[in-house]
Amino acid sequence: MRQSYPSHARATLVLGLPLIGSHLAQMSLHVVDSLMLGRYGVPHLAAVVLGTSMFFVTFILGSGFAQAVMPMVASALGRGDEAQVRRDARMGLWLSVGFGLITYPLFWFSGSVLLAAGQNAEVAGLAQDFLRIAGLGMIPALLVMVFKSYLAALERTQVVLWTTVSAVGLNVAIGWPLIFGHWGLPELGVRGAAIASVTVQTVNMTVLAIYAGRVKELRRFHLYQRLWKPDWQALAQVARLGFPIGVTGLAEGSLFQVTALMMGWIGTNELAAHGIALEVAALSFMIHVGLANAATVRVARFAGMGDYAAMRDAAKTAIGLSVIVAICIVTLFLSIPEHIIGLFLSDGKPNTAAIIAYGTTLLALAALFQFADAMQAIALGLLRGLKDTRVPMVLAAISYWLVGVPVGYSLAFVFGLGGVGLWLGLVSGLAVAASLLMFRFWSRAPG
Hints:
Elements: H1 5-38, H2 42-79, H3 82-108, H4 110-116, H5 121-134, H6 138-153, H7 158-180, H8 190-214, H9 232-266, H10 268-305, H11 308-335, H12 337-342, H13 352-368, H14 370-385, H15 390-414, H16 418-444
Helix pairs in contact: 1-2, 1-7, 1-10, 1-11, 2-3, 2-5, 2-6, 2-9, 2-10, 3-6, 3-9, 4-5, 5-8, 6-8, 7-8, 9-10, 9-15, 9-16, 10-11, 10-13, 10-14, 11-13, 11-14, 13-16, 14-16, 15-16
């Protein structure tokens, strides 16, 4: 009997809500750092905006292997192939560790990279101080993503939510005294925020690793059986699917990174406002990412079972839920922008009023790209459920780099719109990506 749309909605939300909560909590780690450092100093906030952006863009590229685990495990489970579940997840762990090792030098020499990109010398130096420590968290952060994908594909998402929520509290408990020098600890500023981040990522990884291997219902998959032994066939399969996912994420993430760099050319206050507005927009985006993850699992599972009518209905349901969320977020952004931006700043700082005024304008522009951002995220999730990642990679690169970046640069510096022009470039790139990717899914969806 064919499932009704309300039934699909319930199933999507049961799977997706814990993932949404997890993504929001994960993003809150960076938001909490911004909240604390916004009260510590504007150059420090600007430095962590740049440092976090560089870390995140690198992380997105590497997380493609982790994200590939989700549809591969879900599809294997749909076919009843439990051995393949273990093989795919194990090689996702291998690839993530390897990526973390080869990318750390980028963080060690990040100051030179940022100076070459035209950033303020003080801000670049502080960003390097942050990244030399925070970069040590790349491997645990990527392994957390593998475990999240593995557990999500097995529909064990509650543990993912609660471990990530707990991590936010741990981040505050460690970061606040280390940044400001409370409780007899040294005042470390951006280094304190970095130490807290690495500690939290390591603890989170450890908890999820123990859960994935020790919980009774999951032991039958023998996740760590011969973990040290290479499985070249499975490794190649995860790499083939995951590398395009990572590049797709890099194309989008680097669009925002380049926008942050160009905003740095305009001024420190503008960069700080940009960072705050982007943090807020990214928080809302995490809701769509959670729904997209749920869509990936459900599409992959139905595709593995050969039930293509249910697969298409599940896709339509995910799209509808994402549209409803976007409407709510747009209403919020347009109703109380000053209050939202003000949460990140201290009233006593001389730059606060200017940052709030500029950030309010940017948040209104963030409302513009809500629907486009939502649809491109959902479309990518649906396509990954079909294990279709190479063409979407090309479409995303075209949208973000041949449309988004040139439009943003032209409007900002040729037509004199400044930061507003940069954000209009974001809107245009995301809108083109949403259109192309959604057309790709519906033209290829079986049934």
